[in-house]
């Protein structure tokens, strides 16, 4: 079995940081209407700008292995980082996942997120892999991170 496929299966069977924890600054619930995947995600942030620190991400995810594993990788990659670093990771994930296989992903930028490179070849699965990430950005806004700075930052250098 391919190392990356194994990583996705490992994260889906034993998701890291799973389970909703308190305290939290914001909670969101997102659903992928095309397949029924769901995630409830909580975020705790120290600060309100791009230099704020992600102190915790906890979640309850129900759905396919890709959706659950992606939420697990998200939590691993962003906890302890600044909002700006977390958004850079999200932008790298989105760029890779929406590339239809043209971008393999930069491990320095997205860490274990590179395991999802193959998902980009299956457009119907991209929303599964991005569900937790879009919930995360929504939670950041609800936690008080400046929405315009967030939007400006996540759209830089990303081709639609």
UniProtKB/TrEMBL annotation:
Q: Which GO terms describe its biological process?
A: iron-sulfur cluster assembly
The protein's superkingdom reads Bacteria
Coiled-coil intervals in this record?
none
Instruction: Provide the GO MF annotations for this entry.
Output: iron ion binding; iron-sulfur cluster binding
- Where in this chain does the record put each NIF system FeS cluster assembly NifU N-terminal domain? 4-128
- Name of the protein in question: Nitrogen fixation protein NifU
Give the originating organism. Intrasporangium chromatireducens Q5-1
- Record lineage: Bacteria, Bacillati, Actinomycetota, Actinomycetes, Micrococcales
């Amino acid at each position: 079995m391919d190392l990356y496929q194994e990583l996705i299966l490992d994260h889906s069977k034993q998701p890291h940081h799973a389970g909703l924890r308190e305290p939290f600054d914001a909670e969101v619930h997102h659903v992928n209407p095309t397949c029924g995947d769901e995630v409830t995600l909580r975020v705790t942030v120290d600060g309100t700008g791009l230099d704020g620190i992600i102190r915790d991400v906890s979640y309850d995810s129900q759905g396919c292995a890709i959706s659950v594993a992606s939420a697990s990788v998200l939590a691993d990659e962003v906890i302890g980082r600044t909002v700006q670093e977390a958004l850079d990771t999200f932008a790298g994930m989105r760029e890779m996942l929406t590339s239809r296989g043209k971008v393999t992903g930069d491990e320095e930028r997205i860490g274990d997120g590179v395991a999802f490179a193959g998902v980009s070849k299956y457009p119907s699965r991209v929303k599964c892999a991005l569900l937790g990430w879009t919930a995360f950005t929504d939670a950041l806004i609800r936690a008080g991170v400046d929405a315009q700075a967030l939007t400006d930052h996540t759209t830089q250098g990303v081709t639609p």
